[in-house]
């Protein structure tokens, strides 16, 4: 892994020393990264821009996505670099340290029962969940200002290093791009991945289609499919449509897949499906010149909502083996510790290939 602290200017060909890095730390008010500075830009195209507008740290960490971490000064940048190196578990082939000194989360796991609402449409800050399952509630968030609805970062569970991906809403192009980068970086460092599903899917609409939502979402799905590290999925809230693909749903064969009792898994929400069918049916009636029967449309919508709600319920999906079981949210840390220890042991327990069977006497 290449970790870069851009303390000052990173210009023209030199900008690619920053761009080709895996983890990039930029300093507020000091870092500059651009292919052409303001004088050359004005001479070449006539455009006038300040250094900060053109390639400042705040712009790159929030808009372009070039920078992953925004430091307040050079000292803070070096602190972040040390934290990143500590999270990469570069001594992974050395026997694991004694976990008796592992610090538990600073927040009570009982509070997990009140964080996730039964109504999946209500917004939730999934960092509140992370704070109650990881060691010492210590979470180093990756690129927090870019694609902020998709949350990625490094943590540990019972001493096991872990990359976490979760959702504070639908996945947008920036979030998909960030998640793709993070998945590949974790594969590079051989760090297992945990997906905490809480998304109604990828963002839709003209603006997002023009921004390449399908293209960037496909990159995220490809990264999930080709990941070379153990992947564990927990359905914490909604997991709808293609969002289930990008968040390593059951069809993408995570090593382990569990659900919380409030989880919902479906192609889409029941209300969205009902409204879609009502609009399509109404349009068909109008094309045929028939009178629109609003009572029939309302009845159709209620039937679809009831059908979807029954099928997306966690006990229905779990009964169809779409997960490995429903777990109590308070047991999440213990379950993760157990499955991560299994994954770690599997990585070092190599099968000895033989060209013959053992002959009996």
Helix/strand-derived class? alpha/beta
Element string (H = helix, E = strand)? EEHEEHHHEHHHEEEHEHHEHEEHHHH
Oligomer: single chain
Number of strands: 12
- What's the shape? globular
Would you give an account of this structure?
This protein is of the alpha/beta class. Helix content is 41%, strand content 17%. The protein has 15 helices and twelve strands. The protein has helices at residues 15-19, 38-45, 51-55, 57-64, 74-87, 112-115, 127-130, 173-188, 206-210, 213-226, 241-246, 270-287, 294-312, 314-319, 332-348; strands spanning 3-6, 9-11, 23-27, 32-34, 69-71, 140-142, 150-157, 160-167, 193-199, 231-240, 256-259, 264-266. Strands 6, 7, 8, 9, 10, 11 and 12 form a seven-stranded mixed β-sheet that branches. Strands 1-3-5 form a three-stranded parallel β-sheet, with helices on both faces. Strands 2-4 form a two-stranded parallel ribbon. Strand 7 (150-157) and strand 8 form a beta hairpin. Helix 8 runs parallel beside helix 10 (213-226) and helix 12 (270-287) packs antiparallel against helix 13. The model has no long low-confidence stretch (mean pLDDT 90).
Concise synopsis of the structure shown:
This protein is of the alpha/beta class and 361 residues long.
Question: Which helices and strands appear, and what pairs or packs with what?
Answer:
Layout: E1 3-6, E2 9-11, H1 15-19, E3 23-27, E4 32-34, H2 38-45, H3 51-55, H4 57-64, E5 69-71, H5 74-87, H6 112-115, H7 127-130, E6 140-142, E7 150-157, E8 160-167, H8 173-188, E9 193-199, H9 206-210, H10 213-226, E10 231-240, H11 241-246, E11 256-259, E12 264-266, H12 270-287, H13 294-312, H14 314-319, H15 332-348
Helix pairs in contact: 8-10, 12-13
